Amino acid sequence: MFFRSxxxxxxxxxxxxxxxxxPQTGDxxxxxxxxxxxxxQQLPEKLSGQTYRVRVDLVNVxxxxxxxxxxxxxxSLMQDxxxxxxxxxxxKIENFSRExxxxxxxxxxxxxxxxxxxKLQFEQEAAINFFxxxxxxxxxxxxxxxxxxxxxxxxxxxxxxxxxxxxxKLKAGGxxxxxxxxxxxxxxxxxxxxxxxxxxxxLSDGEDESSRHTLxxxxxxxxxxxxxxxxxxxxxxxxxxxxxxSEGDDVLKDLVKETGGRVFFPxxxxxxxxxxxxxxxxxxxQYSIGYTSTNSQKDGKYRKIEVKVKxxxxxxxxxxxxxxxTS
Length: 327
What we know:
The chain folds into 2 domains: 58-100 and 285-323, Immunoglobulin-like (Sandwich), CATH 2.60.40; 104-283, von Willebrand factor, type A domain (Rossmann fold), CATH 3.40.50. Helices cover 25% and strands 26% of the residues. It has helices at residues 13-20, 120-134, 160-168, 179-189, 215-224, 247-259, 269-283, and strands at 58-67, 82-86, 89-91, 93-97, 104-111, 140-146, 150-157, 197-204, 227-233, 263-264, 287-292, 302-309, 314-318, 321-323.
């Protein structure tokens, strides 16, 4: 069952009815799936606990570059400006592009636990503004809420009005938070099947109290799905009330660091809107770098990626590694 509540909460009648009407074909979205890119084989229904069979002859890395002094995006670099290493060994760049209009596939994960109850209304308004401002015809987005359980509220759509309608229905107050489960399930059952630029946007305080998956498992699944994680923390003072501690913020920092995204700590409502704008700008200002790994072993092991620009004065965001295929 897709996004089954991991806390075994009763399923609402309308949701149970919808689930019973889904054809038992293995496609839980009820929609036609996109064709897989050339390097991939047909994927199984779920990947958890199964062999991850993907040919990664070509490793693709999305990289954001910032001016170290102004923190502005740099979009004028060329292929020869970059160097890529895998496990410390330099790799030959074979594919390179600076396209800024590649369609986006987004998953927005909104925390609806009791700890964020007083902040939910502002999160809803900012999230709706984000989708209405940035979603283009070729983009697709889905909406997931999590508290003790994880629920797919809106499957992939390019209609911002559908997303807005579902966002406004969200209610906070659940006892417990399953952040890691929300990430794992979103990647395992949805994003890993998608092509193009994929990103997860999390609105949460970063506290996890009830997940069955660990932080490490959630991060691994995000890397397997090649999804960048962007997080907006709702723990800080001012607009978001009293600071609830740094442990959750540290979790969000770890998630974005490994997957190549960024974390934001808004203090006022205007900053929240600006954070969403920056996420959109970054996703459409990335370099796509592809190389064939010099390591032909199909051992399923984690491989570290490092991207550098030959000249100084830049800061880079990119995923820090990937998992090799298995034979």
